[in-house]
Structure formats: C-alpha cells, structure tokens
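Lab notebook, bench 4. Still working through the backlog of constructs that have no structural model yet. Next entry is a single chain of 321 residues. Request: give me the structure tokens for it.
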Amino acid sequence: METNPLTEALATAAETAGRAPSIHNTQPWRWVVRNGALELHTVPERRLHELDPEGHLMLLSCGAALFHARVSLAAQGLSPTVERRTAEPLAVIRTAPAAEPDAHARRLVEAGLRRHTDRRPTSTTPVDPDALAAVTAAVRAEGEQAHVLRAEQVLELAATVDRAARAEATDERQQAELGRWVGGERPDGTGIPDAAIPAAPPQTTVPGRDFGVTGTLPVDAGHDTQAVYAVLYGDGDAPVDWLRAGEALSAAWLEAVDRGLNLLPLSAPVEIAHTRQLLRRMLADVGHPHAVIRLGTADTATPGPLTPRLAADQLIDIVTD
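Model written out:
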C-alpha cells in the first residue's frame, strides 16, 4: 500500500515530540494523525493528580512536546500552523510546503536528541552572554518573557524553592504519587530512573528537588556559583497560556543545548500557590510565572543519562478514513 508522504511527516514529528521533556517524565500526551493534520491530546492516566491538581504542569509538558513537533516539521521542509484549543484536542497542527527545510530547526531537532535533565551542579565555566541572549530571545519568540534573576533574587529563589519542598514533603498523598514515578529502572518507559537521580544532594545555593530516594548518578563537589536563574512568565494564567509556556520552555531548552548550555527546570515553586505568588513578587507582579530555569555551561566530558521513553505506538495513532 502506498504511504502518504504528509502522513509520514506528521508521524515523524509526533515521534520526535516523544523526546520532549515532561514533569517527572510522565509523557502525558498522545498524538493523532487525521485528515492531513496532527492532533495533540492529553492522557489522564499519565497526569499527576496530587502534585498537579490544576493540570498546569501537564499543559506545560504538552506544550514542550508541541514545540518539538513544530520544529520537526520545519526541519522536514513544512511550514506548520497551530490551532490551540480550550478542549481536546489541545492543539491541531496543519502544514503547508516551505521553500526549503529550516536549517535552524534541523539544529534544534539534533539538540533534542541530546537534551536531558541534569540535576548535578553546574560547570565552573560562566554562561556565555551571547548564548544567554539567544535563549531569552527564543522564549520571547514564543510569546513568553524570561526574567533573569539578580544575585540577591537568587537567594530569594533558594528560600522559595526550599519552602515549596517543605510543603510537599508534608503531604503524604503527594509523596505517594511521587514515589510511583521516581526510582528504580523504569522498564515501562516513563518516570525518572535511579541513573538520573544524584547519589547525594548537590551542594548548591538553590536546592534541587528531593525525590525521597537515593539515585546512582555520581555528584562532584561543584556548586551553582556560575549558574544563571530565570523565571519564565506570561500575561495570562489560562490553560492555553500554560500550553504556550511549555512551548517557550522547550524553545529555550533546545536553544540552550544547541548553544552548549545545560538547562534545568525547577517546577516545585510553581506547583504551590503560595510559592508561585512569591515568584510573582520577583516579577514586580507584572506577569504570571510559569516556570523557573537554571542555565549553566554544559559538562561535555560527563553528560548525564537520557531518561526512558514510551514506544511510538504508545504515543501515536494514525487514523485513515
């Protein structure tokens, strides 16, 4: 049977999106190729109902996957347009032929193959100002803003992250849900394996997340003195705003990798209403915070491991009429 080239391109984009980051590697999305378009759906079974009761981080994750799919299509020589919705499907991507494959998009697709979450201390090499400018420009191109924190604000962030961690540590239901997604070898293709969790808490100014388990990833005596922290924020707080924030986060992450930087998202302070309000004060109440990121120069000598992923047939449906 002859294969439709557009269907192949859309399926390839959906498979590329499978490498996108998601909260605790839940991969809460499913793609449907139908009528020459690519639909993005959520998967309730892979949503964190206790840690993310409003679904913000699920939408952030789906937005990240949406950006990966868009980049894949542009790299294949197609021009994607996105209809973002308030109900299922969250988004529908349609395409038109482009003049030629997008060279920048191709670099971002390659960066997506290397992208991973590294929770270890940052390198001692300062962040290149041009690379930082490219990352913040990528955020703005997706309709978000990136507020780079001053030194005194990093200390405020450290206190805010610590407060969020303490609040979540006292919630037994949240801890039980976290335990289902973290630790072990993760043979089902989701969650965070021991190999991606530091063997000891990194000694950094801004604390990392305490997963409640000891991982096997070696940690040196480094710190985060050369790290750059930023708050991603936007004008709105509606579901579509969180989806677009996920696209901005993904754009920043892939641009960072392409520029030789490591990006670590810190989701804990946006998961709790009180600490999210503290983040908003850092923005002088001018926007709604959607994510916090740490940027550092990547350690190419000892890159961290890639997390497992679901197989393509668990993430993609191709509907033919």
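Notes after review: The chain has two domains: 5-115+310-319, 129-297. Strands lie at 29-34, 37-42, 78-84, 91-97, 145-148, 228-234, 261-266, 288-297, 316-319. Flag for follow-up if needed.
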